[in-house]
Structures are given as structure tokens and as C-alpha cells.
Amino acid sequence: MKIINTIAEIRNVVTRVKKDGKTLGLVPTMGYFHEGHLSLIREARRDCDVLVVSIFVNPTQFGVGEDYKTYPRDLSRDRRLAEKEYVDYIFVPEVSEMYAPDYAGFVEVEGLSRIMCGKNRPDHFRGVTTVVMKLFNLIQPDAAYFGQKDAQQAVIIRKMVSDLNMNPEIRVLPIVREEDGLAMSSRNKYLSTEERKSAAVLYKALLKAQDEIAGGERDAAKVSKKMTEMIQSEKLARLDYVAIVDPENLNTKPTIDRIVLIAIAARIGKTRLIDNITVNLR
Ligand code: PAF
Fold first, then answer.
1. In this structure, are 114 and 190 located in the same domain?
2. Is 132's C-beta closer than 6 angstroms to any atom of ligand 1?
């Protein structure tokens, strides 16, 4: 496994891989790997001849006062884990390699970037699509792998790829959960012991929604209310939103039919967590 820090070097690798007619997979990450990342890496390893994992804590997707500076980083641990999964290249650029001081080029998927998580994090998805576009341009993957935990991110990236006639196939893999259901996330590291216990309420609220729907409830407002009550009853939790939407386009679904994405965001103490499930009635 080779660590690559520069754009010039990664371009050389990509040129060689393409010349050899090999398929290239990319797993874009911000590092601090957990089982969720490893599940993406394993799938990409199975699918592609050459596998690049990028590790880049992308400043443009963090808002003012968010956790860019404190976001967990541990390159030597990530490196060991990636090596065990037979990753070929880790691309770890410095911020200055990705963004020149006068950087001004951004890509935004309008509309979708301003709903749900985008309401409280208005520039977040613009930062995500910009860096993903840059990684796709540099690495030219045949396939790129993302986690369903960031369901809105995945929909936005698919839309960008489709609207801008981009090449990579976007593969979105299931959420990996802890034993009590908490979705794995690098940010779980911020939780104190007490907060960690409280955080299980997110998945419990999603299961509550699933039960309500299984019991015949089709009114999304009523399901949201039950979830909201449950989360509000947890003293360390502060709900940001519950959304019941079409999983393809994130349109709000007042009536639950066919297939819905139920997504939540909440703060547990100071840590903002997201989670979701898809309920399929078909
Ligand atoms: O999901 C993430 O870790 C990030 O948003 C991504 C896709 C690597 C872009 O920085």
C-alpha cells in the first residue's frame, strides 16, 4: 500500500491504471475509520482492480463554529486498517494541495443542499459536492462508495453525477450499527459515557416509526410526532429534525406509501448525530 500526498503523484497513478485497462474504485473518507468505512473498503476491494481510499478532512464542508479543528484524526491507525484490507493507495492531501489560498470554484446541487441537514448547515453540502467533484476529477474512479448513514449526501452526490454527466457509478452501502443500534460514526468518539447511552434514542425512535407504520399508520405527521416525543423525552438529546421523505429525491411524503426514508438529526450534548432507515411497503 502506498501513501500519496500530492495531486501530481495521484494523477500519475491514475494514468498508469487507465493505461493498463484496470478498473479503479474510490472510497472517499475523512478518516478515523470505523466498521462503516471498512464495509465500503471491503466492497470496493471486491469490485475493483485498483482501490484508492482518500482521507481528507475537508474544511469547506464545515461551517463556522463546527468541529473542523477537533474532528478526530489518526492517520497511523487508518493506515494499519487500510493495509489489512489490501487497499492499494491512500490519498492524503494537505489542505493547501486541495485548496489554493485564492480558491473560488464550488459545485452545488441547488435545493437538495438546503433542506434537512442543509437548513442548519447551509454550506455543508456545497463543500461535500465540491470536494467529491475534485476527487472524481483527480482519481477518475469507475465506482465510488458511500455510506447510507449520510443518506442526504448520497442523494445529492447521485444528483450531481447525473446532472453533470459524470462517469462514476455511485454505490451506497448499508449503515453499520453498534450493538444497541447506534449508527457508527467518527463523531461517536465525542460522546461521554452518559451521552453514549442517550444516543441510542435515535435508533429507538426510528424503530418506533417502523413499528407505527407496520401497525398501519400512514400519516407521516403522526409518525414524526411519536418520534419527536421519544427523542425529547431523552434529557441529553436536542432534536434538529425528523424528515419522512422519498428516498430518491428527498421530497416530503405527507402520506406513507410505497417506500420512505425516515431521517433524523439530533444533538446529544454538543455532538450532532444523524441516522435513518428506509421503510419499504412494496
Ligand atoms: O462522508 C464523508 O466522510 C465526507 O462527507 C466525504 C464524502 C468524504 C466528503 O468529504
1. no
2. yes
